[in-house]
TrEMBL record:
Gene: priA
Complexes and interactors: Component of the replication restart primosome.
GO biological process, one term: double-strand break repair
UniProtKB keywords: ATP-binding, DNA replication, DNA-binding, Helicase, Hydrolase, Isomerase, Metal-binding, Nucleotide-binding, Primosome, Zinc
Highest taxon in the source lineage: Bacteria
Domain Helicase C-terminal, residue spans: 569-723
Residues binding Zn(2+) 2, per UniProt: C539, C542, C561, C564
UniProt binding sites for Zn(2+) 1: C530, C533, C574, C577
Cofactor note: Binds 2 zinc ions per subunit.
Stated family: Belongs to the helicase family. PriA subfamily.
SUPFAM superfamilies in the record: P-loop containing nucleoside triphosphate hydrolases (SSF52540)
Cofactor(s) listed: Zn(2+)
Protein name, UniProt field: Replication restart protein PriA
């Protein structure tokens, strides 16, 4: 019954900006609501009684089946949806709570739906936590005594309320006590004798977690059991079960056996919401450098919507500018929204915010459970001023009075959602939101995206450019040495570490400093192939090579697909020719760890990649270990590049830059430059100067030269020239269609039909159809078509429903506006 298609096919259901704000609600006779009851979320149309001035963002009560349920007014309509007959539409019953969400919030969601060509419902699903209304309760409160006689039911309700200590009851209770309560309530509401409101659930369900408590170490126990109990004892006799399992590398059934033997008990224990985050000390504002002060001033002078690109080199103190820009906003009773690429990667950043603003900070990201998301929402909706820090979906955080939005590391591609729909970019949505809220938007980066660079250099008051060209305390930028790995090979050094890096690693121990080793991608190029015939081991479901996984020295090697997670053993001989020379190639994190162990047994290293950081809180745990100097090296992938601020790191080694340089994407150079400058920027942030060793097989690549000189502007100028010639973003606009299905021929045919249809317009160039770089993923064949518009304004895409009808029922078509991932 829930109706998504309704939204797409609405005639003239234009941008929400005109909904409820400019036009009087009176000429709108229908309303679309988000019904939220017993697990089903959907958009439904209701009629508005003439005497009910409903506005977008109100919480309503509507008839739904045989019940009355809560609903959010999402959009007012002045025409009846054609597919519904007038007598099919039921009427809104009452306004439970007026202005629960600001109307601008719904305008934003509508704008997202329209620009990214998805239904409003899809947007609502990213934006709102599930069960928002279902857990809340409608209540009725006494306001005034009657002046004119009331009907029996109305009088009964009023007396009931007056007799209550709090002058207020739940609507459910009133309904049970009073016959004809519904009509009675209407009467009372009309005369303003009572009010109806929505109370968020008062007590949240406590969150429980399994805990293990030691009872006894007596009895006939095997060596292994004893060991587990010994560990538990050493930890004080009480631990969270997950921690014990991890520490002892044991399983739940083993613990259950120990429980049966009376050695320990397993029981759920309540954890408080704030737990899991360590205490942070309070911290005052730092006195700003001249550059920081100038940047802050520019932010504070902004009136209304202004987009400010804060271009500060690595270690220039951008975070301090954010903190001092936020402080006065909170004092004015308004809130701030801070978006970061990946929350798990930046425990340091959240700690700094909490040290400054304490409980006013709330963290919002997709790894939260539904319950936690819901709690955070309630806190936000309370309206008290706060700082919400979160990943891309936090751009939809319902902070009532926004004074500032910040995107840190604005160039990061994780701000873009590739799938599912809506494929939104949080930076684009942030621009709309800041416009709707008339507040400044700060985009911070050491390596701004070309999009933001171009915007910030337009001659308009609404976009500004601020730079922090120097590191804090005039600390030098790290020195970058480029090592030609081809020369190493010629000089008979077959190690993955160049001689330069080897010397630096030896030096690390002597000077008691720390280093980072960066590998382009987890398991990237650690494919298994035959050195006799060249056969490459591939995933049976996807057209990608399997990656070699080796958890520790003596463990059995496994092969894993990073797309569908297929796992299998490595065959001892080549399946194609039977050769025994069937081995892994490349240098993933694991390989580097093993080589370190072999060549530098004195150095300890922590592996920091998506395999070792899967568990909640593990980013923080590993980074803390490292900053406590429990290891000499941190070895990892992309996540090393993001915002790590450790003063004792003096050495950064890039094992091989080549994987980054050779991606088939027009943004490859931009990304490579950003990644390498960011990772280099982790070195020498403290008192000791930093040093970067960049290993590559293509030392003459223009990106390598630009990174070595650490000059952003000349690199960007050259890059922009190319983009302009080819009409790529930021000059032109791209729209990507992805076509996929289980049958290879059907997918290709559908892609061809869609391309023919698309070619009928002259507004854009059609690139493709072409098979995706990886044709098959999880048994689905994928083709794509790229539209290239010469400029960014007014790109019109043919009707999606028409294109979909060309695909047939077994092939799906999705649209990605401004795609970031063209693979
Ligand atoms: N005014 C200041 N006085 C002294 N120290 C400062 C000041 N401002 C910032 N710092 C310190 O300088 C270091 C670097 O700052 P921060 O992490 O904000 O840099 P950043 O510009 O965000 O760098 P990146 O882009 O590389 O993450 C931090 O340890 C911070 O505490
Ligand atoms: Zn072979
Ligand atoms: Zn696979």
């Amino acid at each position: 019954m829930s109706d998504f298609s309704l939204i797409n096919s609405l005639p003239g259901a234009g941008l929400g900006t005109d909904g409820a704000i400019d036009r009087s609600a009176m000429d709108r006779q229908w309303v679309e609501v988000l019904v939220d009851c017993s697990g089903t979320q959907g958009l439904y149309t209701y009629a508005l009684p003439p005497d009910l001035a409903v506005r977008v963002g109100d919480i309503l009560s509507v008839p739904f089946g045989t019940q009355q349920v809560g609903a959010i007014a999402v959009r007012l309509l002045d025409t009846r949806p054609t597919e519904l007959a007038a007598d099919q539409i039921r009427s809104v019953d009452a306004i439970v709570s007026a202005g629960f969400f600001p109307a601008s919030y719904w305008a934003l969601l509508n704008q997202v739906a329209q620009y990214y060509h998805t239904s409003l419902m899809q947007v609502v699903k990213v934006a709102l936590p599930p069960g928002l209304l279902a857990r809340s309760q409608r209540r009725i409160r006494f306001l005034n005594d009657e002046k004119t006689p009331l009907t029996a039911a109305a009088r009964h309700i009023l007396e009931l309320l007056k007799a209550s200590k709090t002058k207020d009851y739940s609507w459910q209770f009133v309904q049970r006590q009073v016959q004809g309560a519904h009509r009675g309530l209407q009467e009372l509401l009309k005369q303003n004798l009572v009010e109806s409101y929505l109370e968020p659930p008062a007590t949240m369900r406590p969150k429980l977690r399994q805990a293990v408590t030691l009872i006894s170490t007596e009895g006939q126990l095997s060596e292994r059991y004893r060991e587990i109990l010994e560990v538990l004892k050493r930890q004080g006799g009480e631990m969270w079960m997950t921690d014990l399992l991890q520490l002892c590398r044991t399983t739940t059934p083993t613990l259950r056996k120990l429980e049966q033997q009376g050695c320990l008990i397993l029981q759920p224990r309540e954890i408080l919401r704030a737990e899991g985050l360590p205490e942070v000390g309070e911290e005052g504002a730092k006195s700003l450098t001249a550059d920081q002060a100038a940047a802050l001033q520019q932010v504070q002078q902004a009136t209304g919507f202004t987009q400010i690109l804060l271009h500060g080199v690595t270690g220039s103190g951008k975070t301090e500018v954010y903190l001092q820009a936020i402080a006065p906003i909170l004092q004015q009773g308004r809130s701030a929204l801070v978006l970061v690429p990946e929350i798990g990667l930046t425990p340091q950043l959240t700690d700094r915010f909490r040290a400054r603003f304490g409980d006013q900070v709330c963290v919002y990201h997709s790894a939260l459970s539904d319950g936690e998301r819901f709690d955070t929402w309630r806190q936000m909706l309370s309206g008290s001023p706060q700082v919400a820090i979160g990943t891309r979906s936090a751009i939809f955080a319902p902070l009532p009075s926004l004074g500032l939005i910040i995107l840190d590391e604005e160039h990061d591609s994780s701000f873009k959602q590739d799938q599912p729909a809506p494929c939104y970019h949080a930076r684009t949505v942030a621009q709309w939101r800041a416009t709707l809220e008339a507040c400044p938007l700060i985009l911070g980066s050491a390596t701004p995206s070309l999009e933001s660079w171009v915007t910030s250099h337009q001659e308009v008051a609404q976009s500004q450019y601020v730079s922090l060209p120097k590191r804090i305390l005039n600390r030098p930028m790290p020195k970058i040495e480029v090592v030609d790995m081809r020369q190493e090979l010629r000089d008979r050094n077959g190690s993955i570490f160049s001689r330069s890096l080897q010397t630096a690693l030896h030096h690390l121990k002597e000077t008691e400093q720390q280093g980072l080793l960066f590998i382009h991608r987890r398991g990237h190029s650690t494919f298994v192939s035959c050195r006799s015939c060249g056969y490459v081991m591939e995933c049976p479901n996807c057209d990608v090579s399997l990656s070699f996984h080796h958890t520790h020295e003596n463990a059995k090697p496994r092969l894993r697909c990073h797309y569908c997670n297929h796992v299998q053993n490595q065959p001892p001989h080549c399946p194609s020719c039977g050769s025994p020379y069937f081995k892994q190639f490349g240098s993933g994190t694991q390989r580097v760890m093993q080589e370190l162990e072999r060549q530098f047994p004195d150095l300890t290293a922590i592996r920091f990649d998506s395999d070792t950081t899967r568990a909640k809180g593990s980013h923080r745990a590993l980074l803390t270990q490292f900053s406590d100097r429990k290891a000499d090296l941190l070895v990892g992938t992309q996540m090393l590049t993001k915002g790590i601020d450790l003063p004792q790191v003096t050495l950064v080694g890039v094992i091989s830059a080549d994987g980054l340089l050779n991606l088939a994407d027009f943004r490859a150079s931009e990304r490579a430059f950003q990644t390498l400058v960011q990772v280099a920027g982790r070195a020498g942030r403290g008192e000791e100067p930093g040093r970067v060793i960049l290993q590559t097989y293509s030392p003459d690549h223009p990106v390598i030269g630009a990174v070595q000189r650490q000059q952003y502007e000349p690199f960007v100028a050259a890059e922009l020239k190319q983009r302009q010639e080819l009409q790529y973003p930021p000059y032109g606009q791209l729209v990507l269609f992805r076509i996929s299905g289980g049958n290879a021929v059907a997918v290709q045919k559908a892609a061809e039909r869609v391309a023919v249809e698309l070619s009928k317009s002259t507004q854009y160039a059609v690139l493709g159809p072409a098979p995706a770089t990886i044709l098959r993923v999880a048994q689905r064949y994928r083709w794509q078509i790229l539209l290239k518009f010469p400029s960014h304004d007014g790109s019109k895409v043919p009707n999606l429903a028409d294109l979909r009808s060309l695909c047939g029922s077994t092939v799906s078509l999705t649209i990605d506006v401004d795609p970031m991932n063209l693979m």
